[in-house]
Design goal:
This protein is an alpha+beta fold. It contains 13 helices and 26 strands. It is globular. Bound molecules: flavin-adenine dinucleotide.
Length: 520
């Protein structure tokens, strides 16, 4: 056995997984086919629940430093040609990070290496195999082909995953004919930018910011910084595209001409990229010793979704895989990865396919649907619901057992916690990515119950106002495994806690170490 876990692919999902595995005590080997960091820009940023998980790992300062500006709530988000406007909400539902993908990958790669991961660049996985004990990767490296053996192998190798195909995991779904081309540009002097943000294009007239539909496709622009715009064209091209193949300036200009019917004189142009849309999901996220995460597991037909869902896959998988490798995983733990993340992916597919229906229709009926949808989003409740769908903050994993607390399965809220040692927060407690029993009501009975698992979980006592529950059992991925209702009698709460601890964290260890952590 060369290593415990092989990760194929050093994109956001693979590098996040590498860091999380290291936190859980497993040093993976990452194999990346590109000899150096990608130059094709891909995502300009990301958003959603992953922003919170990065904060819960203490990584947001580094993310903000790399982005060069603070992480902020998104004032709006595109939703299939409709524009949910969150700017008037006091607590907007989506947080966005304007960090281009290559810089995100550098940050995650540095962090994974600091924590002990090994990353080999220029090593392409050409095929995978498994038996009852090992998973192997055939690799083409700079010095020729070789084979690596591990206990588990995770395919984080993107949409065209060799791991997925080699393992024979079906990837059913639809490829849409839309091709989107993006460029970050300044405009030539002959184009006037009016005070209200409109462009006055010679030979065409005024174009408003946002999306302009023409007979040939969609042209869109938005301001990035003063003087710099993000331009996008969308056209139907049934041949499909390769996201990773570089795009030329001529290709971009030709596309703009086709869509607008005239040339748009450009100044400086950077960050040219292209992407197509697919709605696909791997039939299984686990096949024995081979697992999938990120774009290898799912493709969504809308922007701004992939990084969030893919990195959350990694947060969910890492601690479960580490538990199996550590030899203490309760039965079925690793299978909950497929159970939880396949449904989360299916939900992301639901909302992104709804976006396809909203965006692609060109007739008056489709326009009426968009207008009606936009009208509904004037009300706060549907607006928040759409925001939570886009961000993936509405994910609630089903927890076993009857009569679960409303918080069970949800992402733990970042409560301010007062302890005898001062003020802290749920986010700070989650930095080491260890499970936490948070006693919020000085419940000796629950702390005593959890004592038998204190080799695996951290037990904290604190006060918070308002108190959402008497106690929270929080998994390393920050989802709540179990919660005690306020004032719940020990007769029901303690056995339920014991069951949850056994279900997620395995066999208890009888211990005589006294609990010293008492409330302030
Ligand atoms: C132009 C464009 C704009 C986008 N904009 C956004 C956005 O704004 N927000 C957002 O959230 N998402 C966006 N996306 C989607 C986002 O880029 C993907 O969802 C994200 O990259 C998926 O991460 P991943 O780690 O799963 O896969 P990838 O980023 O595809 O990483 C896979 C890695 O595996 C490597 N690899 C592939 N095959 C092998 C092999 N056989 N052996 C070893 N290594 C291999 C690849 O070189 C790559 O480094 C955009 C995509 C494109 C193309």
């Amino acid at each position: 056995m060369d290593t415990d876990v092989i990760i194929a692919g050093a994109g956001p999902a693979g590098l996040m997984l590498a860091g999380e595995l290291c936190l859980a005590g497993v040093r993976p080997l990452v194999l990346e086919r590109q000899p150096r960091l990608r130059e094709t820009p891909k995502a300009n940023g990301f958003n959603g629940q992953i922003v919170e998980l990065l904060r819960y790992r203490g990584l947001l300062d580094r993310v903000e430093a790399a982005a060069g500006r603070p992480v902020r709530p998104a004032p709006e988000a595109p939703f299939g040609g409709v524009h949910p406007d969150f700017s008037h909400l006091a607590d907007p539902p989506i947080w966005a990070v304007p960090l281009p993908q290559p810089r995100l990958e550098r940050l995650l790669g540095d962090r994974a290496r600091e924590l002990g991961a090994r990353i080999r660049r220029g090593h392409e996985v050409t095929g995978v195999n498994q038996d009852g004990v090992t998973a192997t990767a055939d690799v083409r490296g700079p010095d020729g082909p070789y084979r690596v053996t591990a206990r588990y192998l995770v395919g984080c190798d993107g949409a065209h995953s060799v791991v997925r195909d080699s393992a024979g995991i079906p990837f059913p779904g639809t490829t849409y004919p839309e091709v989107n081309r993006l460029g970050q540009v300044t405009l030539a002097d002959s184009v006037t930018r009016l005070d209200n943000g409109d462009l006055d294009v010679p030979g065409l007239g005024r174009i408003r910011p946002g999306f302009t539909r023409t007979d040939r496709g969609v042209f869109a622009f938005g301001r990035l910084t003063s003087g710099v715009l993000l331009l996008q064209t969308t056209e139907d091209e049934p041949a499909g595209v390769d996201d990773d193949a570089p795009m030329t300036l001529t290709e971009f200009q030709d596309s703009i001409r086709r869509v607008l019917g005239t040339d748009l004189p450009l100044g400086d142009v950077t960050r040219l990229s292209r992407y197509g849309f697919q709605a696909r999901q791997a039939q299984r996220y686990r096949d024995g010793r081979i697992l999938l995460a990120g774009d290898a597991a799912h493709q969504f037909p809308a922007t701004g979704i992939g990084i969030n869902v893919g990195m959350l896959d990694s947060g969910n998988l890492a601690w479960k895989l580490a538990a199996v490798i550590g030899g203490w995983a309760p039965p079925g733990l690793l299978d909950t990865y497929h159970g939880e993340r396949h449904s989360a992916g299916a939900r992301a597919l639901l909302q992104t396919q709804a976006q396809v229906a909203l965006r692609r229709g060109q007739d008056p009926a489709a326009q009426a649907l968009r207008e009606l949808f936009q009208e509904l989003l004037a009300d706060e409740q549907p607006l928040r619901r759409i925001g939570a769908l886009i961000a993936g903050t509405d994910i609630c994993y089903p927890m076993p057992g009857p009569g679960q607390h409303a918080l069970a399965g949800t992402f733990a809220p970042d409560l301010t916690l007062h302890t005898k040692n001062g003020t802290t927060s749920v986010a700070e407690l989650m930095h080491p990515a260890r499970p936490v029993l948070l006693d919020l009501a000085n419940r000796t009975d629950l702390r005593e119950t959890a004592r038998d698992w204190q080799h695996r979980i951290d037990i904290h006592t604190a006060e918070t106002v308002p108190r959402p529950a008497d106690a929270l059992l929080i998994r390393p991925d920050a989802h709540i495994a179990w919660a005690a209702t306020t004032g719940e009698p020990a007769a029901t709460a303690a056995p339920a806690l014991r069951e949850a601890l056994s279900y997620w964290f395995g066999t208890p260890l009888k211990t005589t170490v006294p609990i010293t952590d008492r409330p302030s």
